Predict the structure.
Amino acid sequence: MKILQNQYELTNHLGNVQATVLDRTTPILNNDTLVTGYNSDISLAHDYYPFGMLMPGRYVSDTGRKCVTINTSILVPVIVRVYLWQTEGVGHRNGGISTPPVHQLPVALVAADEKPYVYHYNDASTHPNGEVITGQTVEGNAEYTISLSEEPSGGVTTYFQVHADTNQTDQEIGFDLTLPGDCYVDMRVRQYYTGTGEEYYDAVTWTQVDMSGAQQVLVPIDKTSVAAGGKTILELRFNTTTAAEFPGGVGGVMRNFYYKITHYEPKTHIAIVCDEKDNYRFGAQTQEKVNEVAGIGNHYTALFWEYDSRTGRRWNRDPRPNKSISPYAVFNGNPIRFSDPLGDSVSVKGLYERDANGNLKNYDKVRAFETFASTTEGNAFILSYAEKGFSLQGEIVKGLNIQAEEEGINSARGVDLIYSFHDGESNYTSPSLLEGRLKINIGMKRDVWSTMRPDIFKPGSFSEGVREVESFSHESFLHADLQTRRYIGNRNFFNNPNPNLHFDSRLDIIKGGYDHDDAIYNKSNSLHYRQGLNLLKDAQIKLLNSDFKGSSPISDEGLQDFMRSGRTGEFKKSH
């Protein structure tokens, strides 16, 4: 032990560090000369608001003030509108020798330089001044007049190259459109697969805009529908409702054509971070404080979150959300009752109880659980209930290393699994419903088998170690699995008057009460039977290679005896 470097936490029932005591002492003097005793130095002490923010004025510490200046540059999104300014438009006669296919229309280097392309059927001489499209500048933006004179209904189509971006979520095309009476426009957005090919799909499908007169048109574009490297073209087709062709001298006017895009501008934040009398890194729920972000006690970090104690919200989405509350909410909205030390909502921490010296209280039981979890069957079982990012490393079984790279199938269906110890007479598996999720609580008794059945098992024997593993296998593969599948298949799970009634679709068995013996473990075709037996075979090999080197393996008949004695504890032979 290094004197003057150890601090001891004093926490409340939620794990909040409310004080720390140093191994440094202060002498108690009598008449300034005689030392009559010593006081332990309090490193810090503070009170919290319910969600973990420190209460101002209720904070003490013996550390001096230390400050540092931090510069952070970030990119800030800025939404802007880019307007067309080119007054030139281009007309092409359908079927003309020099008329290019639509997919070959040129693309300007910048969005503001784009121009409209009008495809029509009649000769240009039939249009006013021989022009199908004319442009001018009005209040700094381009305005286009598109002649529809004597053209067939649907025979005039205008195309605009769109500068869409696959990295931008918020994209929009907008323009003001004025049409003569009895006219309407069909509109869509073509998305070409490449920049040169003619194959395309509709990023925005045909939409009819019924209108005469002036109206603003907004066309949102989803970035997921945009193909990187391919052309994106807005297509407008003009129609009349009263005749086969437009009357002479009429036209449509488009003005204020813009792209709404998001670009990023650098912004520098300068912050002065002070270690103001805070010489201990941990606070609410024993989580680590990150004072550099928002000041002392205002921000915490844990395995599965970054957490702002001032707003009572996490920065990231909950990896195990409850459907009835926000994925950014914490403690089920009740910080007085609930805690969440890892920021995920479930763990096997109830098995890892420790004494005052930090040693495991239930070594043999934890070894049994870690052996169970290290087998192929046990590993797969735990991962099926794990949230993405869940991890479990063995403290006794060194080869145990579970990493959940994706959410397990049962977790995704709304089922959580919780292991813990208790002082009752028997193991149990009990379901409960909380915030829209099924919580399956597996409670394992602390007593080992040699204490409960000294006539069968010797303390610390290999057979006792295997039997302890079978207890975890039994509660997991039989009860937890059945309760999970029954809940998923029947949402009226908690309305059943017989909570021990299980349905096993793999055996076509419906059995009241406990379905341990004849229904499950006495049938060799039962999946529960095969899982349990394979797991015990694997587990005893692992135990023989670790704490029980030199012991004799148990026969399949002996392992089956363990499995069949699940409820009654009646063994056919001595172990």
About this structure: The chain has three domains: 7-65+276-333, 79-265, 363-564. The CA atoms of residues 189 and 505 lie 51 Å apart. Residues 7-65+276-333 form one domain. Confidence is low (pLDDT under 50) at residues 496-522, 566-575.
